[in-house]
Amino acid sequence: MSLLPWIPVATLAGAVLALAAGARSAAAARAVAMVTALFGLLAAGVAAARFTPSSELVTLVDVPWIAQLGIRYHLAVDGISLSLVVLTAIAATAGVLFSWTVAERVGEFFALYLTLVAGVYGVFLSADVFLLFVFYEIAIVPKYFLVAGWGSTRREYGAMKLVLYSFAGSALVLAGLVWTYGAGGAEGFSFGALTEAAARMSYGENVAAFGLVFFGFATLAGLFPLHTWAPTGHVAAPTAASMLLAGVVMKLGAYGCLRIALPFYPVGFAAWQMVIGWLAVAGIVYAGLVALVQRDFKFVIGYSSVSHMGFVMLGLATGEVEALGGATLQMFSHGVIAGLLFAVVGRMVYEREHTRDLVELEALPMHRRLPGAAAVFVLAGLASMGLPGFSGFPAELKILTGAWAFHPLWAVGAAGGVLVAGAFTLRVIQRAFFGRFSAVPATAAETPDQAVVPTRLTLPERLGALLLLAATILIGLKPDLLLDWIMPALQSPAFHFAASRAVP
Amino acid sequence: MSTDYALLFRALLPEALLTATALLVIGLDLAWGPGRSRGSRLQMAVGAGLLGLVAAALVVWQDGSQGTVWAGNLRLDLLAVAVRLGVLGLAALSLLGLTGARASDQPAEYVGLALLATVGFLQMAVAQNLLLAFLALELASLSLYVLAGYDRGRPESAEAALKYFLQGGVSAALLLFGFSLLYGITGRIDLTGISVALAAHSDASLGAVAVGMVLAAFGFKAAVAPFHPWAPDVYQGAPPMSAALIASASKLAGLAFFWRILWSGLGSLSATSSLTGGAGGGWVPVLAAMCAVSLLLGNLVALAQVSVRRLLAYSAIGHAGALGLGLLAAGEVGPGPMFYYAATYGLASVGAFACLALLERAGDGDRIEDLAGLRRRSPLIAACLAVFVLSLAGIPPLAGFFGKFVVFAAALRIDGLGHPAGWVALLAIAMSALALYYYLILLKQAWIADDARARGRVDVPPAAALGLVLAAALLLVLGAFPALLLGRF
């Protein structure tokens, strides 16, 4: 896996190149972005092909960075991070394909986009807490400019809300980690050093520090009630940014919870476990119900993301190996599916019809106007409902089994959430694509011109959709592809707190 | 007590060089200036000034740390070398920025005064003796008062100078009073002697008064609440590059200065019980409280600003709280984190003011909306401003992030939350999340909003562009490799 450590650096370099190329021509900037994204996909693919599952983080590069504080530039990979790196590579490539029509300030757009992607790769590959945090913050600021500069509905509001929530979350994380470093007298910022430092803290300190770190990360993961940035932010963002935000960036938060908060502070986790579980269940059900009554197509998808991320948080809350594996699988699964859903809404439908209003879409024969989009959305919707054959099914099943073992009521609540997800997905499929188009809409003058037949799906759109669909179906049919990486990683000593509670 | 004058001269060579340069600049202008345009006079003055600064920096660099000189009155340790180099660099960047500012009618005198202020800063970094320290502080302050009021055409500039002078005068008087009390208690004026005498002294209630005076003076110099009210008016009214010097080099030198006085001189009163009669206390909790108030006040009031410079002023008050935290932590972990923070903060401030100076010259107003469309009007300024503002906001990989991080880590390292500094550090982290809002508002105007008035491009002279790029590049390099600076301490 020789290419893997170069992904963050190469992606950052791609960002700079895209900026430079954008000054010459938009096509050059697009090409740079595509090549950079493909490099990531290639590097992740090669690494995946050569990967031998183990319970240890395999170090890729490890050099001193800020020796005075024991901070190292330490990149490492295990089954969990590799799954998410592969997800990032897929989502980033699809994002570039679905951004093919961005026309304004293309160089800047892709520079910001690739900076965000580089930060995401960096987080998943970091094996030093400080380094992880630096990459985490690098991923924050580009979001603001992407959303505020290229977004739609209330974009400046959405962008600021999104970034302030993210940054406030990261401030909580920073406070908790630096406190642990100081109060626990850590040698440095390696995972091991901070885990030991956290163990040296008193019970009360441990519980408080876990709260800071976990809820800081959980803000980005969209845990109810810290999720409110997500729907507005996703809706305001340009297509590729919503795909990345919902698909990958929310996973940064969940990954932080899984990789840092839970293993570092098992004592604190035990104290907060019930709260987290109930919040996760509340999020699943609440966001699903809200999605059920949205009129804006994109808001439906935005809330569905919150609902699906609730499953990830529920899996984490059980603190049980099978469910943790399910949560990781759900991160991958949701990353792919959310990307697909946002691509259909933002790129395929909105850019052609210039509306996301379900009432207006209902008045159009969308399945005839955009058969390709309808087909992709139906498949993505089935995947999103968690039907067998798609990646969401094994993931949610594992989480629900784990939740049942730990606290049956959680499983009951979450299963109700699955029903709601089915309801809002079917509703949106029906209204957006198979509406009552025979009836004349009340506001006929304001609806898009029915006479103009929208263009068919372009090649980049087809390729992007194919890539994402292939990923969700492949994992749906053979989840062991990922589980064989993830489950051994969960046997690592870092996750001992979970192994001790595992159900036979 | 024999004095080795050769050594003393060597130690003071940078100051001597700068003083000579200041005189040379004014002399050159007298000889060659009349009849020439303001622009060419400014270029001559800045060129000569830069040469002097570079020569002084070379001397400082070559001599390195020499320990104490002149019977312990000057201390040329690592911090002194670092602060002197930092001050010289920030002054040089300010001079480069001056070439992009609206030309004043007497550019040579301006440069001369800036150099004299720098002499004061250099002395502040090394003085180990109350009299010498006060002299250095006054040399710097008096030069800065004049620089603040240099823009004689604008009443705001005069107002800024007057406010700065009145509050500075009071704080200088307080400091002198504090110093005289210290002398009265201990009979010494050298910091080492004071420290020894204070430690042996049993009743230090007078010492508490003296410490209070010193803290008030520190509050003024660094704009820590409640001694901050001069800052917004001075930042807004003074010529931009004067404000830049006040915000950067002056603060860096001031921190080193008060680090020496508070820790080397009054260290025994830091947390001892003698001040409050056995109930704990000392000046550490007082300073921690000042920092906390400063962090809250600066960041909250900055949210409501419409003027860019007032926004920077309130953000500076917030930053001053964090700088003070670095000063607190420096007693435990040494001055490294504090220096890193102050130096990189100074870089970002000088850069931001250099951007504002360019815009002011182009005839722009000072409101946040006036930044609109900067991306088109000057991509260079917009890009550099983004680096400076994001560094102030503390976004990695820019140096401002590591400045905050090392200070907070040091503060929490003292004793977790068992020490007041730990709580202030958590507050500072919370405030940094708040601060991102107003920093992003600036960048939103510069990078996203379009200019409704369709103003023309902003002209950037090459020297000013060099200054901007240098400052931005330094912030990037020091951010990517913080060990370059931190490793020296």
List keywords for this structure.
heterodimer, A: 504 residues, mainly alpha, two-stranded antiparallel sheet, 22 helices, B: 489 residues, 21 helices, 75% helix
Write the layout of secondary structure elements.
The complex is a heterodimer of chains A (504) and B (489).
Chain A: H1 7-24, H2 26-50, E1 58-66, E2 71-77, H3 79-98, H4 106-125, H5 129-138, H6 141-150, H7 155-183, H8 191-200, H9 203-221, H10 229-236, H11 239-264, H12 266-292, H13 297-318, H14 321-353, H15 358-362, H16 366-369, H17 371-385, H18 392-406, H19 408-433, H20 459-477, H21 480-489, H22 496-499
Antiparallel strand pairs in A: 1-2
Helix pairs in contact in A: 1-2, 1-4, 2-3, 2-4, 3-4, 3-11, 3-14, 3-20, 3-21, 4-5, 4-6, 4-11, 5-7, 6-7, 7-8, 7-9, 7-10, 9-11, 9-12, 10-11, 10-13, 11-13, 11-14, 12-13, 12-19, 13-14, 13-18, 13-19, 14-17, 14-18, 14-20, 14-21, 17-19, 17-20, 18-19
Chain B: H1 5-11, H2 13-32, H3 38-63, E1 67-69, E2 74-76, H4 78-98, H5 107-126, H6 130-148, H7 155-186, H8 191-200, H9 205-222, H10 230-237, H11 240-247, H12 249-265, H13 283-302, H14 308-333, H15 336-361, H16 374-377, H17 379-393, H18 399-415, H19 420-447, H20 462-480, H21 483-486
Antiparallel strand pairs in B: 1-2
Helix pairs in contact in B: 2-3, 2-5, 3-4, 3-5, 4-5, 4-11, 4-12, 4-15, 4-20, 5-6, 5-12, 6-7, 6-12, 7-8, 7-9, 7-10, 8-12, 9-12, 10-11, 10-14, 11-15, 12-14, 12-15, 13-14, 13-19, 14-15, 14-18, 14-19, 15-17, 15-18, 15-20, 17-19, 17-20, 18-19, 18-20
